[in-house]
Design a protein that fits this description.
- By secondary structure, the protein is α/β, with parallel strands linked by helices.
- It has two domains: 3-179, Thiolase/Chalcone synthase (Peroxisomal Thiolase, Chain A, domain 1, 3-Layer(aba) Sandwich), CATH 3.40.47; 183-280 and 293-331, Peroxisomal Thiolase, Chain A, domain 1 (3-Layer(aba) Sandwich), CATH 3.40.47.10.
- Helix content is 35%, strand content 23%.
- The strands form four sheets. The protein has a five-stranded mixed sheet with strand order 1-7-6-4-5, with helices on both faces.
- Strand 12 (313-320) and strand 13 form a beta hairpin.
- The model has no long low-confidence stretch (mean pLDDT 96).
- Bound molecules: acetyl coenzyme *A (ACO).
- Residues 35, 39-40, 43-44, 118-119, 158-159, 162-163, 197, 222, 224-225, 227-228, 231, 261-262, 265, 289, 291, 319-321 line the site of acetyl coenzyme *A (ACO).
- Acetyl coenzyme *A (ACO) binds at residues 35, 39-40, 43-44, 118-119, 158-159, 162-163, 197, 222, 224-225, 227-228, 231, 261-262, 265, 289, 291, 319-321.
């Protein structure tokens, strides 16, 4: 085990998630763009997604997930002293979604902020929060991945609108007595590839205007093929680095929880790492790509369906805009 992660031991002591009730099915999408259920299932594995209505915000989903994670951990909101929200779809540019969650769950003692690492936001958040607990300035962290991606999805672009869904997941991080907790966190990025996956409008480069709306700059733009190739290689490499850190092999991992972007990306990454199908968690068929929320939603569902039990070794990995990617290996 990498020495710097051995002491103190920091682990996930609670997990929770939330997703809107409304569904967007492939049949619905067939009525919106020129696509088919067969094409979507073959290329992505996605059948349906949860979709936020006009009144539902990212912070609402995040707050519900956070309260469920706190309940699972048996921790009072007043004991939380750090909130980190990974999101690419904040309620607004400021205040941060972290501060809105703090207000809504009554975590009055917490320092709260957002972290921009797109789909890798939850993994980046775990890395940052574990580091802050390790350095002794914080004790109890809520790490949240929350998105309403369908609000920045261009429903006139068939190459992207079939991919995304909405939801949130949260984890409570604390020092742990039993088990080894987090044994490795690794994060990386390559800003030279940023143009492959971006939402160009709304910031200082293209401040909102009638022209930016007319040019559809407030929607996700993606070069799908290039994202696909980079995602598989980067995710496989960084899981291997994490396993090496911890002195583990793929055989020591009980559950592999990859970012739920696309079934083919998941299968190709698992194959490179030699994880057998039964160790690979997949729910992309029912949620689509929920970006930063996908891993905590998957971990929560794995727990609730008995695929994950205390003491299991988990390898989680994500890849997203930036490009950013990262892995976390932990004993649950
Ligand atoms: N329905 C029907 N046809 C479609 C659709 C659709 N929804 N979308 C694209 N096509 C067509 C294209 O127009 C193209 O037609 P052409 O050959 O006549 O030009 C054909 O299908 C093939 O298009 P490709 O883009 O080459 O299809 P590909 O096999 O690469 O699949 C996909 C596209 C699914 C987007 C794939 O590239 C992919 O999954 N990439 C990764 C995307 C992703 O997961 N991004 C997010 C990861 S990071 C994050 O989570 C933010």
């Amino acid at each position: 085990m990498a020495k710097y992660l051995a002491d103190p031991k920091i682990g996930i002591v609670g997990i929770g998630s939330d997703a809107p009730e409304e569904l967007l099915t492939n049949a619905d999408l067939e009525r919106i763009v020129d696509t088919s259920d067969q094409w979507i299932v073959e290329r992505t594995g996605i059948r349906t997604r949860r979709i936020a209505n006009s009144k539902t915000t990212t912070s609402m989903l995040a707050s519900r997930a956070a309260l469920r994670a706190l309940e699972d951990a048996g921790v009072d909101p007043g004991d939380v002293d750090l909130i980190v929200v990974g999101t690419a779809t904040p309620d607004m540019l400021f205040p941060s979604t972290g501060c809105l969650v703090q207000r809504d769950i009554g975590a009055t003692r917490a320092a709260a902020f957002d972290l921009a690492a797109a789909c890798t936001g939850f993994i980046y958040g775990l890395n940052v929060a574990a580091g802050m607990i390790r350095n002794g300035t914080h004790d109890t962290a809520l790490v949240i991945g929350a998105e309403t991606l369908t609000k920045i999805t261009d429903f006139e672009d068939r190459s992207t609108c079939v991919l995304f869904g909405d939801g949130a997941g949260a984890a409570v991080l604390r020092r742990v007595e039993n088990g080894s907790g987090i044994v490795s966190t690794r994060i990386k990025s390559d800003g030279t590839l940023g143009e492959m996956l971006m939402m160009p409008g709304g910031g200082s480069l293209h401040p909102p205007s009638h022209a930016t709306v007319d040019a559809r700059l407030h929607y996700i733009k993606m070069s799908g093929n290039n994202v696909f190739k980079s995602a598989v290689k980067s995710m496989a490499d960084i899981v291997q680095t994490g396993l090496d850190d911890a002195g583990l092999t793929a055989a020591d991992v009980d559950l592999f929880v990859p970012h739920q972007a696309n079934a083919r990306i998941i299968e190709a990454t698992a194959k490179k790492l030699a994880f057998p199908t039964e160790k690979v968690f997949m729910n992309v068929d029912r949620y689509g790509n929920t970006s930063a929320a996908s891993i905590p939603i998957a971990i929560d569902e794995a727990r609730q369906t008995g695929r994950l039990e205390r003491g299991d070794m988990v390898a989680a990995v994500a890849f997203g805009a930036g490009f950013t990617w990262g892995s976390v290996i932990f004993e649950y």
